[in-house]
Design a protein that fits this description.
Helix content is about 35%, strand content about 20%. The chain is α/β, with parallel strands linked by helices and about 220 residues long.
C-alpha cells in the first residue's frame, strides 16, 4: 500500500490507558523504516492515552461524543468529525487500541482496502474469536471457566468482532489465576502480538497462525 522505502503509516484510536498504543508507538520508534504512527484519535479528553501520545510527540485529537436526537445520529455526527481529522493525514491503516466505540457500517465501508476485500481498520480483541465477542471478553471467558484463552487481531467489518482474522495467539489460564492475573497474562500477549502484526503487514510478510487470514491473501476482483 506504500512504496517499499516508506514506512506504513497508521492512525491510532484509543479511549483508555493506552498500553497497546504505547507498544505500537515504541515499535514504530524501533522500526522507523517499517512503521510510523502519524496521529492518535480519542473520544475521551481525560484518557491517559492522550499523555502517552504527548510523551512520544504524536499529535492527538480529542473528538468527544455530542449527543443528538437519536443514537444513530449521534454516531454519524461523531464519525463525521473523525473523518475530518483523518483527511489531515496520509495513512494506510486505522489501528484500534482499546477504542470503546462501535463504528457504523457507513464508517467502516468508507475505508475499503485497495487490494483485498477487507477494510483498512484493524482491531485487537481479547479472546480467540469467534468466541466471546463484545466488550467484556476477558470477564466472559474467565466466568465461563476456559482453560485456554487468547488474543485476536482482525480487520474490522460492519459486524461487531466479525471481521477477517489476521492473527491469533493463545495463552493458558493457570489453576490459581484470579481475574486480574488472567487479564495480565492476556495483556502481555496483546502487547507483543499487535505491534508484531503491524510490522508484518508493513513488510508484506503475512505469515500467521490464523487460517482465516488466507481470505485476506485473495485480492478482490
Amino acid at each position: 500500500m506504500q512504496p517499499s522505502y516508506a514506512p506504513m503509516r497508521v492512525v491510532l484510536f484509543a479511549s483508555g490507558r493506552g498500553s497497546n498504543a504505547r507498544t505500537i508507538i515504541e515499535m514504530a520508534i524501533q522500526q522507523p523504516m517499517s512503521l510510523k504512527v502519524v496521529a492518535l484519535i480519542t473520544n475521551k479528553g481525560s484518557a491517559p492515552v492522550v499523555q502517552v501520545a504527548e510523551n512520544y510527540g504524536i499529535p492527538s485529537y480529542i473528538v468527544p461524543v455530542r449527543r443528538q436526537e437519536t443514537g444513530r445520529a449521534t454516531r454519524l455526527e461523531h464519525e463525521g468529525r473523525i473523518h475530518e481529522v483523518l483527511k489531515k493525514y496520509d495513512w494506510e491503516y486505522i489501528c484500534l487500541a482499546g477504542y470503546m466505540r462501535i463504528f457504523t457500517p457507513d464508517f467502516v465501508e468508507a475505508y475499503p482496502h485497495p487490494d483485498f476485500p477487507v477494510s483498512r481498520i484493524i482491531n485487537i480483541h481479547p479472546s480467540m474469536l469467534p468466541a466471546f465477542k463484545g466488550s467484556s471478553a476477558y470477564d466472559d471467558a474467565f466466568d465461563y471457566g476456559v482453560k485456554v484463552s487468547g488474543i485476536t487481531v482482525h480487520f474490522v467489518s460492519p459486524g461487531v468482532d466479525e471481521g477477517v482474522i489476521i492473527a491469533q495467539e493463545s495463552f493458558e489460564r493457570l489453576p490459581n489465576d484470579d481475574l486480574t492475573q488472567f487479564k495480565a497474562r492476556g495483556l502481555s500477549v496483546e502487547h507483543r502480538l499487535y505491534p508484531n502484526v503491524l510490522l508484518s503487514l508493513s513488510r508484506g510478510d503475512f505469515v500467521t497462525q490464523s487460517e482465516p487470514f488466507s481470505i485476506f491473501l485473495t485480492p478482490s476482483s
